[in-house]
Design a protein that fits this description.
2 copies of one chain form a homodimer.
Chain A lengths: L1 H19 L2 H4 L14 H6 L5 E3 L4 H18 L14 E3 L5 H4 L13 E8 L2 E7 L3 H16 L9 E3 L5 E5 L29 H12 L4 E3 L12 H14 L5 E5 L4 H4 L11 H17 L5 E4 L16 H12 L5 E5 L11 H9 L10 E6 L23 E6 L15 H9 L11 H6 L7 E5 L12 H15 L5 H13 L3 H12 L1 H9 L30 H5 L23 H7 L10 H4 L14 H25 L6 H33 L14 H6 L10
Parallel strand pairs in A: 1-2, 2-4, 6-7, 6-13, 7-8, 8-9, 9-10, 10-11, 11-12, 12-13
Antiparallel strand pairs in A: 3-4, 3-5
Helix pairs in contact in A: 4-6, 10-11, 13-16, 15-16, 16-17, 18-22, 22-23
Chain lengths: 715, 715
């Protein structure tokens, strides 16, 4: 009878919670992929565990246990608590050298320091699920892996897996300013409320740490690479220290972007010359101060001598001189320097795509061991599609950290649905051929031996209730973490995981949603920058089309610089007959890229200037293919809208409505991109549209007249 | 048996919801005073209603019913739904002319168009609680009043009350910019996501409307009085129209701040001269365009010829010329112009406190009937304490709209706890003596006959999860609405209501919390600007003390302008021997304010310059009294911290912790204000501290050196 009442009560419970829960709070996206709603009946039983037990608690094991309590309580619909004993069907958390675990002689030797192993074992005579690793951080990652396993519909008692991250530094770079704005941020203000720190520790900081730990991110650069020196003053160090305290149990270190001229601005020195002993002493003292406040401070990220930032070249020193001086200040404390290779200079008339390689390739092997050079995925700037950066494979004696942009500065910002998994995968699977076939970017990033390795993502996180400005933008944060952990990951698998965790594991929901996601980034390429075009966005805010812009002071500020279209053709010739940027790739690759005929259609106009009538590998003439690409991109968005409408019954009202509204915006804007681009190309090439193609809705003057003075994210 | 299971299930339901609810979502302040958590057992029963019934549904009655469903379900812990029949113990919503209600012959004649009447009646033979009014907006306000009644612990079946608002326009003024920043905003970005409007209608917009309707606010000015013309362009009108659609059922009209030079900036005219026929025609066309998009558009708020804003005086026309021209454009559609009297001019050497009166008093009776002149509570600018503005009572033939600042620009911004109810009350109860004793500001604001009346509050609302940056800042939004509805309200009663709705009706919680609130604004006066001092805040951001500042270009930008302290004395002489600002008040009041001996201590230094040894009515010499005030202010904050700590067991963790952290900040900053101020006054007057007073923690140079380049809210 009690059982019957219990079941009846349980059913009522769920009903009642649903009835009283405010829709605005119930599903507003705040929970991210850590959603922990009751699973469908079939899987719910398989996600039921009796308790959580921790052997030899630490702050990190405690938060891991709390996450499991929260997660399994939610997924199973039954409260799961901590126990000190080890009941049957419980989950046990313990590091591998705990005697009870060591006695099991599990294959933990293959794990690295952050790896985990999950499997059914017998402890104290009871069958339990053990989550272990060499460190408590490993156990934490294992706990999240076990939750993911359950969230994606698998039975807890079958959980048998292990994994170790392929990279050491898995970081988010926040381009957050001290005034609360976020450069290229489309999800509201900075998550860091600098004004009320260190006193007030917003619970969001903890939830941020949980989300990051769940995907293996272990570091966060708090402030914009276009840094203010103030972030290195005592009050701001105290604020950063408060965040570090919140993040520490989650295995997340705090890093800061360092302004290279800080010794002048804060220290009153006359120079920031890295070889000046006073400068070096100032940075050593600053590092000491930082480590007194934050004993596990991660280190510095530096943007130097790029886009107006100060740097060692101001004193005729090299990037290595600058990086190594900072590295020497951090080395006694175990800190690292992440030195950005994103450099191009006003004075340099060389092809912008070549400048980073030109500056850095000669420095290979000259950096201190605690320096890692941070290289963007492509040689220009986070475009919808770029070929991989030629520095990958070209600096075998220098650790390279791959930098992706999770925030979609050039891919429709907040409102366009573009899953970046395929972009990450495309870069990582690119073969540099630097050390023979199979020398993929993923392998370069994973490194060799004890050298530093890492991956950084420019965060898309703000104070928006749903963190990333839209539900689907959350998938890019998620995917970045999963690829940083495993550069060989599959974007399709990652999408399936994310969709199941975010919307529930029912294949009837997961299948259409992952289908939408799969081609969504390619659709953006199609309607914005097909066939290897790049950087056609309007000035400054990078929102909307502006291929006609050619009157800005610096040549590389102009979209024209990136397409060079005229009556005779379009594209930038980067082969031997042009800027010879192709020569920066490994010889075998350089040879094939030197010739349009052996250059993939997808990056043709990046590498080559060809006539409008040029025949692609598809057999189509270029102009016809371009128009078809634009139309395909627009049609894909139409498809996404239809697919989204079809899953309406399975999605909560609030998240459904927001995505639906954003898809409406995207549909209108995809068409705008297509029409504005075609209106411009036609004004240049004088060609008619292929039969059946719709003419642009307005004339070119109309598109040129559009103005967006309040576009977000514009520094 | 079913009954028993039902009870058991009910108990489980509550437990289960509590257990699975994420603390971060459960009590993060988002619910404001519409919290609807289950009442204590005793009151819960009395808040149980059987159903909600609507007679003759309209969009407004529908949202009223939804609110009652939500509210009574939450308060009673039992789901309450809509019914088409009228069951016993239900709540019935209907306007008074509905035949069933008209048949009851209730005393609705005394209500105005927005008033409500709630009482137990018999309908269809059943005892029900009827909520009625002449319009559906009245019924909506009555529904919220009934919820308030229950939330504060009263039995629904005893609900017998009626009320009508004393003012016609009860508005929030948002100083929100189109780029998402908020001038003097301390609660995050603008609530309006202009970028995704009109497509995306954030559910927050609806919750904003609910909160406002619950306190009787019936209009909102969406954009900053320092306005951009862009807000009057077609895309932004469409965005405003989307918000108007959301707000309409809640009885809330949308207004816009209008930039006076818009005909030049948008219309390409050469002038914005209000007497130029082309200018008038441009505004007429713009008004027509606005009303096509927003049929119930409220009208314009205008800041003209003040702090650099354009206005009619640029063309040697009067404020009346400017206002009446705009009024003529709006009149055919029923719109109003709210014309701000907050003017002071760079060229004008007259006491800043006198300039508004000088400009506007001569215009009394010259404004069109659909113009209302908006006057700040005091003559300077929203200081912790100001005597009431001399324009109140001085313009009997002109409707005056009282403007308060809810956002605490000068009262500690986000982090200081200062309940403004006593400030509102103090201004409203001030007797202008303009029409004999009892001519209070409240009576001036309530107006006479059919003339426009109104009250405006500069909003403290942003995208912060708790809307206003802190839980207690919510009380100021609440109190503003309650005082706008009833300028005779009691700040203590309003505080009790708010505290009961926000934290639960248990007197053991309400009593200490209202005790904290009661003196909190006076504490800010004490530690920032005692005895009638004003505007001693640091430059631009108005955060922290800067009484020493005297080197800014315009005299009235300098705190020195507001205190004139030297060895011999302190204060601004505004009596007949000084600027004679006292003469702007009604003769009887002017006479008493002319003499320090008959001027209240609380505003002494506002009206008079006196020696440091001057004896106050309390008998204390000025300097000793000042030090005592500073110390009392600091001590009050200490008391608040202790009181808050004492209610910890009764407050949820998240809201408790945030307020506790903010009280820590306030305690440190109250001491900073006291110490910095004393260090400066002592440097000026050379006097020792009274015996027992603690010396400042630092020397004056230290206080002067504090700098806050990233303070929020600074335009």
């Amino acid at each position: 009878m009690i059982g019957a009442i219990g079941r009846f009560a349980g059913a009522l419970t769920i009903l009642a919670c649903a009835a009283y829960a405010r829709p605005a709070q119930a599903e507003d996206g705040y929970d991210l992929w850590l959603r922990y709603r009751p699973l469908p009946q079939l899987q719910r039983k398989a996600a039921t565990v009796s308790a959580i037990t921790v052997l030899r608690e630490s702050p990190t094991l405690r938060v891991a246990a709390e996450e499991l309590e929260r997660g399994f309580s939610g997924l199973s619909g039954h409260e799961v608590g901590r126990q000190d004993t080890i009941p049957a069907d419980s989950v046990v958390l313990a590091i591998a050298r705990t005697p009870e675990v060591a006695a099991l002689a599990l294959p933990v030797a293959a794990l690295n320091e952050e790896g985990y192993l999950v499997r059914p074992v017998t402890l104290g005579g009871r069958r339990v699920t053990l989550v272990t690793g060499k460190t408590d951080r490993g156990v934490l990652y294992g706990a999240f892996a076990l939750l993911r396993w359950a969230q994606t519909g698998h039975a807890v008692r079958t959980a048998t897996f292990s994994s170790s991250p392929a990279t050491k530094l898995r970081l988010l770079d926040h381009w957050d300013n001290l005034d609360g704005t976020v450069e290229r941020g489309y999800a509201g203000q900075s998550l860091w409320d600098w004004w009320t720190l260190p006193d007030f520790r917003d619970p969001r900081y903890t939830d941020y740490a949980r989300a990051n730990a769940s995907i293996g991110i272990n570091g966060t650069v708090l402030n914009n690479v276009n840094a203010k020196a103030d972030s290195l003053t005592a009050p701001y160090i105290a604020k950063a220290a408060a965040l570090a305290d919140v993040f520490r149990p989650y295995g997340i270190k705090v890093y800061l972007s360092a302004r290279f001229s800080a010794p002048i601005e804060l220290g009153g020195l006359k120079t920031a010359d890295p070889l000046d002993p006073q400068v070096a002493a100032w940075w050593r003292a600053k590092a000491d101060e930082l480590y007194r406040a934050i004993p596990d401070f991660g280190g510095f990220l530096v943007k130097a001598n790029s886009e107006g930032q100060p740097g060692p070249q101001d004193y005729k020193r090299s990037h290595a001189d600058g990086a190594n001086m900072l590295a020497a200040a951090l080395a006694p404390h175990g800190g690292v320097v992440m030195w950005r290779a994103f450099v191009y200079a006003q004075e340099n008339a060389e092809d912008r795509a070549k400048q980073a390689y030109d500056d850095f390739k000669p420095l290979d092997g000259k950096f201190a061991p605690n320096v890692i050079v941070q290289v963007k995925n492509g040689a220009i700037d986070f475009q919808p599609r770029e070929p991989f950066h030629p520095l990958f494979g070209a600096m075998p004696r220098t650790p390279l950290m791959l930098e992706f942009q999770i925030t979609k500065e050039y891919l429709g910002q907040a409102t366009h649905l573009a899953y970046l998994g395929p972009q990450f995968e495309e870069t990582l699977r690119s073969d540099t051929l630097a050390d023979g076939p199979g020398s993929t970017v993923a392998r370069v990033v994973a490194g060799t031996g004890d050298a530093l390795t890492g991956m950084a993502g420019v965060a898309n996180i703000g104070r928006s209730r749903d963190w990333s400005g839209s539900t689907f933008n959350q998938s890019n944060w998620y995917a970045f973490g999963r690829f940083a952990w495993d550069p060989q990951a599959s974007s399709a698998d990652v999408a399936r995981e994310w969709a199941a965790m975010t919307f529930g594991p029912d294949p009837a929901i997961v299948a259409p949603i992952t289908k939408m996601m799969a081609g969504s980034r390619e659709a953006v390429v199609d309607y914005m920058t097909p066939l290897g075009l790049a950087h056609l966005m309007a000035t400054a805010h990078h929102y909307g089309p502006g291929p006609w812009i050619s009157d800005l002071k610096r040549p590389e500020w102009n979209p024209y610089y990136y397409h060079r279209a005229d009556k005779d053709g379009i594209g930038v010739e980067r082969g031997p007959g042009g800027t010879n940027a192709t020569s920066q790739y490994a010889p075998a690759l350089a040879r094939s890229l030197a010739d349009p005929a052996t250059t993939p259609d997808a990056t043709l106009l990046w590498f080559h200037r060809v006539p409008w009538t040029y025949r692609l590998k598809s057999g189509k003439p270029l102009w016809q293919a371009m128009v078809a690409d634009y139309d395909r991109g627009v049609a894909y968005v139409d498809d996404m809208r239809r697919t989204w409408a079809s899953v309406r019954p399975a999605i909560d009202g609030e998240r459904f409505a927001k995505t639906a509204a954003f898809l409406d915006i995207q549909q209108r804007e995809a068409l705008w991109w297509r029409d504005a681009s075609l209106a411009y190309w036609m004004s240049v090439n004088g060609l008619p549209l292929p039969p059946g193609a719709a003419p642009p809705a307005h004339d070119l003057a109309w598109y040129k007249a559009q103005s967006f003075p309040y576009a977000p994210g514009n520094p």
